[in-house]
C-alpha cells in the first residue's frame, strides 16, 4: 500500500545557510525510491508517495541521505495526509477569519505533554495564544511570527528539549493537506 507523506525540513534555505535546492531534494527523494515527488516553496516542504517505512523511519532515512549528499545535518519530520488533515481540522482558532501570517502550527517529532509548557506565563503574552495538540502546537500571533514574543518563549530549549520542532504558517498547513491529498 502506498501512502502520501509530507517531509518538513527544519532550518534550510534561511539566512544563507544550509542551502538545499528543491530540485536536489526532489532528486534525492526519487533516488530513495519514493514516487510522485513534489516540493512546495523553498523553505523545506516535500511531498512524496511511499510504500515502505513509517513516518519515523522515513524521516531518519531522509535526514541521513541529506547529510550524505549535501554535507550538513537537517532535522526532518514526516507526516502522512491523514495526520496533516486532522491537524488542520482540529485548529482551535478561527482560521477562516485570520490572516495566514497570524496562525501557525509547530509540528513536533513526538507527542508533547502539556507539562512542558507550564513555565510559560500565558497571560503575559496576550493577545498571543497557543493551544497544544498531540504532536502539534497551534500559535495565534496577531502581529506575525517574526514579532511574536510568545513564539520566542515556546522555542526555548527547556520547552523543546529532546524534540524536533518546525513551524509552518497557515497557508502552508493548508497547502500540505491539499498536496498530500491529491
UniProtKB/TrEMBL annotation:
Gene3D superfamilies the UniProt entry points to: SP0830-like domains
InterPro entries, alphabetically? DUF1697 (IPR012545)
A Pfam family recorded for this sequence = DUF1697
Q: Which SUPFAM superfamilies match?
A: SP0830-like
The protein, known as: DUF1697 domain-containing protein
Amino acid at each position: 500500500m502506498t501512502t502520501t507523506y509530507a517531509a518538513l525540513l527544519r532550518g534550510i534555505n534561511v539566512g544563507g545557510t544550509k542551502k538545499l535546492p528543491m530540485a536536489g531534494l526532489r532528486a534525492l527523494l526519487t533516488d530513495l525510491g519514493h514516487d510522485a515527488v513534489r516540493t512546495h516553496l523553498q523553505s523545506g516542504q516535500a511531498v512524496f508517495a511511499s510504500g515502505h517505512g513509517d513516518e519515523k523511519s522515513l524521516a531518519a532515512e531522509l535526514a541521513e541521505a541529506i547529510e550524505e549528499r549535501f554535507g550538513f545535518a537537517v532535522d526532518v519530520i514526516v507526516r502522512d495526509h491523514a495526520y496533516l488533515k486532522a491537524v488542520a481540522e482540529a485548529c482551535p482558532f478561527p482560521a477562516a477569519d485570520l490572516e495566514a501570517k497570524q496562525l501557525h502550527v509547530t509540528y513536533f517529532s513526538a507527542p508533547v505533554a502539556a507539562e512542558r509548557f507550564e513555565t510559560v506565563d500565558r497571560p503575559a503574552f496576550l493577545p498571543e495564544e497557543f493551544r497544544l495538540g498531540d504532536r502539534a502546537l497551534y500559535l495565534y500571533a496577531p502581529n506575525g511570527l517574526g514579532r511574536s514574543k510568545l513564539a520566542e518563549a515556546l522555542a526555548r530549549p527547556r520547552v523543546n528539549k529532546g524534540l524536533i520542532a518546525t513551524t509552518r504558517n497557515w497557508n502552508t498547513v493548508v497547502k500540505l493537506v491539499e498536496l498530500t491529498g491529491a
